[in-house]
Amino acid sequence: MRLYTAEEMGRADRAAQEMGISGRVLMERAGVGMASLALERFSPRRAVAVCGGGNNGGDGFVVARELHRAGVEVEVLATREEYRGDPEANLRALKGLGVRMIRPEELGVSLGRADLVVDALLGTGFSGEVREREAALIRRINASPARVLAVDVPSGVDGSTGEVRGEAVRADLTVCAHALKVGCVISPGREHAGEVAAVDIGLPSEAEVEPSVVLNDAASLAGLIPRTAEPAHKYSAGALLVVAGSRAMTGAAVMTVAGAQRAGCGIVFLVTAAGAAPLLDARLTEAIVEGAPEDAEGHMGEGALEAVLGRAGRASAVVVGPGIGVGEGGRRLVEGIVREVEAPVLLDADAITNLSGSDALAAREAPAVITPHAGELGRLMGAGAREISASRLRHAREAAARHGCCVLLKGSDTIIAEGEKAAVNPTGHVALATAGTGDVLSGVIGALLSRGMGAYDAARAGAWAHGRAARLWLRETGWPAESLIATDLLPHLPRAFAELLEGRPPR
Ligand SMILES: NC(=O)C1=CN([C@@H]2O[C@H](COP(=O)(O)OP(=O)(O)OC[C@H]3O[C@@H](n4cnc5c(N)ncnc54)[C@H](OP(=O)(O)O)[C@@H]3O)[C@@H](O)[C@H]2O)[C@@H](O)CC1
Ligand SMILES: [K+]
């Protein structure tokens, strides 16, 4: 499935027009397809279409016409005094059919009667903050009890980024023309879009452009995961060093190691605080556990870096962070690992917080992945979690550029960014909003790094499999999403990986 920004959609559209396909035809196909989905999904009886002054409004006129033809009682609010071009032609056709046009002051009454609202106010031609006149209409739409179908993008959502500054429509279903718009899959736009679908508008494949953001679906990951080649031994299968845990935080280390083991690592070493080592050694049957000197708080302290570097020589990747604690000792440990370890390094949780204000990552030449949530990325970037959450794609990209690494920004719409590349993961689920799932993810990606995958591909495949494992658990147990605990993911990771290896599109 393709993701396009507004600019990319515009380029594809112009390419199609150069091939002789008129904008009018594309608009017609878009509107017809959207109306047919609306009929199928909502079986509306009374609909109101709110149509803006651009081509999004033009699509809306076509949707309204098709709903009218299907016997739906339709009313249309056209916000502009005078229309031109394709929207004008479609509006004329609509009026010719005798569809009732309403004025803004009638909208409240009409919305009160309707069971479907077609939101065609603003599409990909919008970005920034909605002007007050449109904002008032959006508030009206959101206050209506009717179901909402958004045309291409929920009005007020930036179709290229998912950013919302001010009001934005909350839709039940967003139907995009041709490709999903990036803003419909990234928060907060994602939450405004509701269910998202695309309609075919017959754009020729020669008109397609290179997308700047890809949907991290199984098809896009096909063939990326390596198999262990013969002759194999545990080191050639991937040796991962995990630096995790402290006296009071042992579970984080367990989940990181177990995640790595299920993601196909040949051998996992764990370096942890000395006080936690005996317990972890007993729990982690297959791992090699070593205690490192700890400070008064039970965090790895002075001397821990030496223990880590002693092990790192045998490892093909290193994961550091879960449960290590935040402080000066942790900072020295993480900076030392970033500086000294030549194998790919993944930094998670406390490792990221320990690097706030540090330029160690930027100075590092070897591959690195960081896996922050919005709060951790905020601390690293000197911004608030709220600021990060409002512009997730921009911040993920900025962090990747500033620190010269791959950034996996966690969320229900996990974003993976590196250099010019960016991907949005579709397998995330609210079930994953529980303690420890992030530790499992670190282990999974660490294992893929240790098996020779590049940072960006390992992060993408790990994010997909991690989310997929949660979905497999839900399907198998039928239990409420809220009941998932992090270790539930472990027995489902192999199935998720099998799906990626088999290249089978998941059901
Ligand atoms: N490309 C394609 O291949 C295809 C594209 N298609 C469709 O075209 C759509 C894009 O159409 P578009 O480019 O005409 O822009 P659109 O989203 O209607 O917005 C323009 C309107 O918004 C207004 N407006 C702007 N900023 C504003 C603000 N801050 N606050 C308030 N208002 C603001 C602006 O007002 P103005 O500034 O002109 O006064 C103008 O009225 C796309 O989403 C899809 O639905 C399909 O038909 C199939 C093929
Ligand atoms: K819209």
TrEMBL record:
Please provide the Gene Ontology terms (biological process) for this protein: metabolite repair; nicotinamide nucleotide metabolic process
Its needed co-factors are: K(+); Mg(2+)
Q: What is its EC number?
A: 4.2.1.136, 5.1.99.6
User: What does the cofactor field's note say?
Assistant: Binds 1 potassium ion per subunit.
Specify which residues bind (6S)-NADPHX according to the UniProt entry for this protein: 55-59, 123-129, 152, 252, 323, 373, 439
Keyword entries, A-Z: ATP-binding, Isomerase, Lyase, Metal-binding, Multifunctional enzyme, NAD, NADP, Nucleotide-binding, Potassium
The record's section on InterPro entries has: Carbohydrate_kinase_pred_CS, CARKD, Nnr, Ribokinase-like, YjeF_N_dom, YjeF_N_dom_sf
Please state every residue range assigned to the domain named YjeF C-terminal. 217-500
Q: Pfam families, alphabetically? A: Carb_kinase (PF01256), YjeF_N (PF03853)
- The UniProt record gives the binding positions of AMP as K410, G411, S412, D413, T414, G438
**Molecular function terms, GO-annotated:** ADP-dependent NAD(P)H-hydrate dehydratase activity; ATP binding; metal ion binding; NAD(P)HX epimerase activity
Q: Which CDD domains match?
A: YXKO-related (cd01171)
Q: In terms of domain of life, where is this protein from? A: Bacteria
**HAMAP family attached to this UniProt entry:** NADHX_dehydratase (MF_01965), NADHX_epimerase (MF_01966)
- Subunit notes for this chain? Homotetramer.
Q: What is the documented function of this protein?
A: Catalyzes the dehydration of the S-form of NAD(P)HX at the expense of ADP, which is converted to AMP. Together with NAD(P)HX epimerase, which catalyzes the epimerization of the S- and R-forms, the enzyme allows the repair of both epimers of NAD(P)HX, a damaged form of NAD(P)H that is a result of enzymatic or heat-dependent hydration. Catalyzes the epimerization of the S- and R-forms of NAD(P)HX, a damaged form of NAD(P)H that is a result of enzymatic or heat-dependent hydration. This is a prerequisite for the S-specific NAD(P)H-hydrate dehydratase to allow the repair of both epimers of NAD(P)HX.
UniProt record similarity statement: In the C-terminal section; belongs to the NnrD/CARKD family. Belongs to the NnrE/AIBP family.
Q: What is this protein called?
A: Bifunctional NAD(P)H-hydrate repair enzyme
To which species is this protein native? Answer: Rubrobacter xylanophilus (strain DSM 9941 / JCM 11954 / NBRC 16129 / PRD-1)
Q: What is the lineage of its organism?
A: Bacteria, Bacillati, Actinomycetota, Rubrobacteria, Rubrobacterales
- Gene designation per UniProt: nnrD
